[in-house]
TrEMBL record:
It is found in: Nucleus. This is WD40 repeat-like protein. WD repeats lie at residues 116-157. InterPro entries: Swd2/WDR82 (IPR037867), WD40/YVTN_repeat-like_dom_sf (IPR015943), WD40_repeat_dom_sf (IPR036322), WD40_rpt (IPR001680). GO terms for molecular function: chromatin binding. It comes from Tuber magnatum.
Amino acid sequence: MAANPPHRQPELTKLSETIARYRPSKAFSNFAQGAEVTSLDFDDTGEFCIATGDDETLQLYDCKLGKHSKTLYSKKYGCHLARFTHLQSNVIYASTKENDTIRYLSLHDNSYIRYFKGHKRPVTSLEVSPVDDQFISCSHDDTVRVWDLRSHNCAGLLNITAPSLAAFDPSGIIFAVAAQSTGAILLYDLRNYDKEPFTTFNLVDNSFLSQYSYPPRMPSWSKLEFSNDGKHMLVGTRGHAHYVVDSFAGDTAQFVYRAKRPNGPTSPKKLETSGDVCFTPDARYLVGGQGERGVVVWDSWMQADEKQTLKPFIELAENTKSMASVVSFNPKMNLFATAHKDVVCYHL
């Protein structure tokens, strides 16, 4: 990645000092003892945060008031990957028991609005369009499905081997599907998703992978996300490095390196989380977990080394006892949340 122009350096220093001031301000322990948080999401306004746990509960938090709002139970069906729709009172989430139905839930009265049936195996990714009522789901049944919140019928179906993750670009026109088994990212036009992907990026490059493991192998992928300016994609992994990919050229611009890889699920029955790394809303920084060492921040504007590797420039609350196995940044307010067994909010 090219060096930054000299005239931008004063601005860089000021912004870097700002991100370095984040500290954990409040921790919430609302899940059952021993339970682990599997996903976090903020609504469009940033006022609310929803968390799912493997104790089969959804926990709602009020970010403005800094308090826990309510507990919602899904004991019969389980819950994972809760995502706000464009109404802060409604979420969709994946079932983990009984069947693999996606459920559309009203948080106001804890009643189901609609069911989305079709997947035959567990859902691995669930993403709502940033601009309308469409959403995408991936599943272990080797399908990607396109849905509309207004209809229980599947609007579109793609057969892709091991489509583990999906993400919309900020315009809502393009969506990406990460196929872990092939090490590829497939880009589709939502208006013509029934056709072949218009671009395929292959991340399997042994010259890079050999830096982190021998024999070279791709670590398990846990997160796929576009930056808010649409210029880059983030592929989060369970290994020692994440990947920052140019959305237009497909080149792996940088490897975001962390010294301490996170623990995976503590048992085979535990769910993989929705990812422990994310972009900040300004598309410049990446915030991620560092195992038991707390949270670290990478500055994508910094110069990578000769191996295209970028190391964290700051550790936030490195002595915290709360591991960050899930990380999500608030889209409107100056805070982000991490979770493992508790949900921890970081403020300036």
